# Entry
Amino acid sequence: MEQLFEGCVLWTDSGGLTRAARNPVYGSDRVSRFVAGLVGKYGMPRVSVIDTVAGPVLRAVSEDMTRVVVLETDGGAGITGIQVQQNQGKIH
# Structure
């Protein structure tokens, strides 16, 4: 969480099939609290890196589901964005 840029944004996509943030989460404090809440509820996921056509992404397997996570960076400023895909129909 210490790598989060102050102005970072987190987006989730569940396709309406699972619980997710309906709106983007703005700011490092809110993003870190959102992620901490997920970890508190479902436990720390098993994380691995998978290669995709668009580049490497994180595969996070939790008690409740598998998520694909894309981290956006801005040169050395840390993590500026986090995109979480949890619509199982879009994860292959």
Remarks:
- The radius of gyration is 13 Å.
